Amino acid sequence: MRKYYQYFGLALIMVFSFYYTEKIALIVLNKNPLMQSIQSEKENYEVDYVNAFIDGDYIIPGVNGLVVNTRESFYQMQKLDVFNAYYLVYEQISPEVSLKDNKDKIIRQGNPKLNKVSIILSGKSSISDYLESKNIKADLLVNLDNYQENSYFEVVNDEKGAYSSLENTLRLNKEGSNICVIHNMTYEECLETKNYIVEPTLVLDEYNYIDVKNKLNKGSIILVLDTARMSDVKLLLKELQYKNLDIVYLSEIISEENGII
After folding, report:
1. Residue 16 has pLDDT above 60, yes or no
2. CATH number for the domain including 215?
3. Ramachandran region of residue 82, left (φ > 0), alpha (ψ -120 to 50) or beta?
4. What is the tally of structural domains in the chain?
5. 112 or 21, which is more confident
6. Is residue 76 part of a domain?
């Protein structure tokens, strides 16, 4: 028993020793002129988060805030020994109202403050072949019949009969997007998957290019049906380029990650 108390005492001494050593190091660090410069300047570079916007059953993703990690920033600038904003290290702060806490809501568009759009393809076709040949990002709805491993596109589970089976396959192949699209799948079916629920902002078919073009905006999620004309798809791509809208994967347009860093 005596040895037990000795070991316990030594352990306590070590814990308190580490604690006070860390405290002393922190005090010394905070008195460093470079650290003081970082502390005084950091608010000029930090970014407030943007809450997700909820409107009934629908939600628009928010954007994470950015705060400066002063210690890591100090280590990055230590060799220079002078403040340089380029070397600031940030941490992401989730919004108070966030997608991750509202997975029962339907995402109908990305954040309209960001110059991003997404394209969803209803299946493999000459359109998907064209987009792949041009290295244009898109999401592809897949089922057990048409899924192919290592597809160029980000794949979205669209299997009504055996959703869980295909979902397991996608995750094993590291292709799971954690997204369910309301198209062939209903809201109720998507809700059961516990994935993020997306409903396209716009649907391009063989007749409605002008309508889609007129409604196209930042954050638009465009479902391109197999029946859409190749000529209309090419016009759509030119319109996106004209409006300076970046085409990103669906997982990116619904992400609340702050892309500034």
Report:
1. no
2. 3.20.20.370
3. beta
4. 2
5. 112
6. yes
Residue 196 pLDDT = 97
Q: Both 74 and 191 in a single domain?
A: no
- Helix residue ranges per DSSP H, the chain: 2-30, 33-41, 70-77, 126-133, 163-172, 187-193, 209-215, 230-242, 250-253
Percent of the chain whose predicted confidence (pLDDT) is above 90: 78
Tokens, residue 235: 């016009």
Residue 11 pLDDT exceeds 80: no
Q: Residues 122, 183: contact at Cβ < 8 Å? A: yes
Give the Cα separation of 171 and 156 in Å (integer).
Answer: 11
Q: Are residues 190 and 209 in the same domain?
A: yes
**In which domain, by residue range, is 39 found?**
2-47+64-95
Instruction: Check residue 176 and give its pLDDT.
Output: 84
